[in-house]
Amino acid sequence: MFNQIFATGFSDTDTLGHINNCKFPIWFENARDPIFKMFTPDLDPKQWKLILAKIEVEFVAQSFYGKDVEVKTYVSRIGGSSFVVAQDAYQDDVMVARGLATLVYFDYHNQKSMALDGHLKEELKKHLI
Q1: Domain residue limits, the chain
Q2: Which tens digit of pLDDT belongs to each residue from 77-127?
């Protein structure tokens, strides 16, 4: 599992004073960097090997400006060419959002998915919950 802390900014809020719903998918994507580095260690976009097939975000509780948000990232499923990253966001030790992202190991040159090799599967399994 990976943990990352995000500071909330005034511009992250909506007119009700809550953290805007659009902010969580951005934080979730940024918190997936350690997963991305398993596939492209230098994060060079010309060597990118993943595509995002699906995201889901569930808002569990209200979140507010001025308090950090912690995102916990782990792998929840590993398939033949895809895997699911699950993420939970906490503020003051209360879960405020959770998300799922389905990522596909992808060959951009040939425009098709690739099978996850043994090494990649083993790296992903280290974070499987």
Answers
A1: 2-125
A2: 999 999 999 999 999 999 999 999 999 999 999 999 999 999 999 999 999
Which CATH architecture fits 2-125?
Roll (3.10)
DSSP assignment of the chain = -EEEEE---GGGB-TTSBBPTTHHHHHHHHHTHHHHHHH-TT--GGG--EEEEEEEEEE-S--BTTS-EEEEEEEEEE-SSEEEEEEEEEETTEEEEEEEEEEEEEETTTTEE-PPPHHHHHHHHTTB-
Residue range 17-66, pLDDT digits in tens: 899 999 999 999 999 999 999 999 999 999 999 999 999 999 999 999 99
Instruction: Tell me the whole-structure pTM to 2 decimals.
Output: 0.94
Q: Say how far apart CA 11 and CA 19 lie, in whole Å.
A: 9
Question: From residue 117, how far is each of 53, 78, 122 by CA, in Å?
Answer: 19, 11, 9
